Amino acid sequence: MRITAVVAALLAGAALTAAAPAALAGTGHTAIRAGAAQASETKYWVDTFATATGFYRGGFLYAGTHYVFCKRRGDRVGTADQYNHWWLLTDMDTGGRDYVSAYYLSRWGNDEARDNSGREIPNC
User: Fold this and answer.
1) pLDDT of residue 39
2) Staple partner for 77: which of 22, 49, 98, 101, CB 3.0–4.6 Å?
3) Residue 46's closest CA among 57, 62, 32, 58?
4) What separation in angstroms does the CA of 44 have from each of 75, 79, 85, 114, 123?
5) Could you read off the pLDDT tens digit of each residue along the chain, which spans 124 residues?
6) Burial status of residue 119 (CB atoms within 10 A of its CB: 0-12, 13-18, 19 or more)
7) For 87-94, which contacts have Cβ atoms below 8 Å and span 24 or more sequence positions?
8) 66 touches 48 (CB < 8 A)
9) What is Dmax (Cα atoms) for the chain?
């Protein structure tokens, strides 16, 4: 199982809002690239291998099968060998709608954001 120090950084930023870049200054963690999410309600089903923390609200998406709406490029999450820059908009198991790192996808490699059938998840 992959473990990342970013989880701790995300937990520390649990109360962040859209004004996150200033709040994250000096932490080595930056916000997901700016812009309002223009997500459709189309659901793309994905499997995650571990519990992921939401970027802005800090809720949790537990390991298992979930739907996501779209992706947005942001911080790199992972290790030197296993990583992802994509963040997926979803309805969290706790905490409402938020972004989680595509690093937690079970089926795909570095910097990939695909659903379980192999379709690329669209940009937000």
Assistant:
1) 60
2) 101
3) 62
4) 22, 26, 18, 8, 12
5) 333 333 333 333 333 333 333 333 333 445 565 444 556 789 999 999 999 999 999 899 999 999 999 999 999 999 999 999 999 999 999 989 999 999 999 999 999 999 999 999 999 9
6) exposed
7) 87/32, 87/55, 88/46, 88/113, 88/121, 89/37, 89/39, 89/124, 90/61, 90/66, 91/67, 92/54, 92/57, 92/59, 92/60, 92/61, 93/59, 93/60, 93/61, 93/62, 94/59, 94/60
8) yes
9) 39
Contact indicator for 44, 119 with CB cutoff of 8 Å:
yes
**Residue length of the chain:** 124
How confident is the model at residue 119, as a pLDDT? 97
Decide: 73 and 81 in contact? Cβ < 8 Å: no
Q: Is 47 helix (H, G, I), strand (E, B) or coil?
A: strand
Cα–Cα distance between 56 and 44 in angstroms, integer? Answer: 21
pTM of the model: 0.71
Query: 106 with 48: CB under 8 angstroms?
Result: yes
